[in-house]
Amino acid sequence: VTGLQNKTLITWTFGHSTTKIAEIYREDRIFNTSDGPDGRFRDRLKLNNQTGSLTITNTRTTDSGNYTVNIKARNQTTYTFNVTVYGSASQKMLISAAVAGSLLIAAAVGIYWICRRHRKTDQEGTDQTRNEEITYADPTFYKQKAQKPGVKQEDEVVYAGVLTRN
């Protein structure tokens, strides 16, 4: 429905009953919504008093059915809409998804921590094996031979040598 004239009466009904769930009559300033006979639409119907559009928020599977709008102005027009709501995310599903996500995050953190700790242990083990690779120290003293007899050269003594294996 696009624009309403002052003498337009719009009535919305649900299901096969004639129970009104919404009504607009601009001339008498009537803009009403109803919860329905069983209260199923409580606080979920929004009626646009400019266009006559009816919006149902937080839809449920029980909202499925025939909706009829009757528009009386110069002429009377009736439209029927068959609405099907297949399902909505239940609170239990949302909680289950949140718990599953939390468990996955906890598992990822646990695996990361274990790998990091294992890597640290490997590095400490590598440091120990490096210390063990020093097999001996040579305490033998060596005297270098002079290369030219006319040049004064001081003797250099090598006190120790370290042999490492790579």
How are helices and strands ordered from N to C?
EEEEEEEHEEEE
- What is the share of helical residues? 25-40%
Strand order of the largest sheet: 3-2-1-6-7
N-C termini distance: 86 Å
Q: Number of folding domains? A: 2
Arithmetic mean pLDDT: 78
Number of strands: 11
Radius of gyration: 44 Å
Strand content: 25-35%
Q: What's the number of helices?
A: 1
Which architecture of the largest domain does the CATH hierarchy give at level 2?
A: Sandwich
Name the overall outline: rod-shaped
Class of secondary structure makeup:
alpha+beta
**Largest beta-sheet characterization:** 5 strands, antiparallel
Uncertain parts: none
Keywords: Membrane, Transmembrane, Transmembrane helix
Transmembrane segments: 93-115
InterPro entries: Ig-like_dom_sf (IPR036179), Ig-like_fold (IPR013783), Ig_V-set (IPR013106)
Domain Immunoglobulin V-set: 7-81
